[in-house]
Amino acid sequence: MNMNQNTVADEKLKEKALLIVRYFWLDKLFEIGKQLRLPYFDQFENYWEINHYQAALEVAKSITDDKLLELFRKHPPKYGLTLGGFQGKYYTADEKGNVNLESSCEKVRKNVQVALKKWGDRAYGLLQALINKGGRASYFDLIYEIENVLGYEYVPSYLLPRLQSLKLVFKTGSNKYPDWTMPPEIIPVVKEELDKFRRPLRQIRKTSLTDKVLRIQQEIDAVVNEIVEKRRYINQVFEHKFNTKLFKENEKAICDIRKLCSNEDEFNNRIMALALLIDQIEVDGLKRRAKGTYEAGSINLLEAFLKENFPKYNERIIQNLRQITTLRSKKYPIHSDDKKFIEAMNYFGIATFPPDWEELWERALRGYLESLQMLLEIIEGS
Asked: Is the full-model pTM beyond 0.70?
């Protein structure tokens, strides 16, 4: 194959993997990988240990399109497909899971054009902001990013459900902690249309460096305030239900994660403080509630506790914590540089190395908050 053919093949393979991720939950994907006898799956004993995308990629590489369709027919999705189905360049699926080997690009393109024609600059700002955030953002994160894109503030509560009807964005997450997601397979087409859009002339107020730093500090403070609040509530609920707190207090670490992060050295200091908050749990109290065997470590103990007491817990709780710990442990100065650091970066949506250290820090911080939010949600509901 020439270079162009290689590019197309690689592009199609990645899209096939995205479709498999959309189609199969981890447990079913693990079962399929074992049935196909793929070496990747031999290193894991439990389905929750696999990386969803990497596992899907291994399956995608091992089967033809015909075998893929056969696999989908044999294992239809129990609850349908999220994000309105699948709207790819090479694969299309409806919400029930019926898959066709055809492109949805023109349909997506027309829907973007409809949005831009109807709502103009505001639709542009919302869609571009969501792309800038890696395709997924909370409501308030989206508001901040829209202002960065447009140069003026816009609250998108009116527009979001209308773009959902065009299958460009979808409300995701839990009812208590929702966010908004653009299906990853449509992002390239949406970006192409946004790049062609000519924004109306508008006087844009230039933001000074001081204003920008102040805004970043306000955003970090808001996230840390939520972290402090969630840790406090979790401790209260834990003590009520399990006669033990979950987290040890560490005011110094909380102070450190409030600080700005503009370079690698500052990132090292911030991520060490955040990892310390993860490590410092009330081990003795939790051990009494975690049966069976598990490897040493605070995260392993918490995982064992969740499996025993909340078997349907959201696995992102533990995944986020493990990846944050990897960001601390798999690079200098804690240990020698390790490829797992880049894998952890990718997990948080950062694709290039060296990363924007400020952005990586904010995403790790929000990942910790997400774990706390989901943890509080399940223990409150128990």
From this structure: no
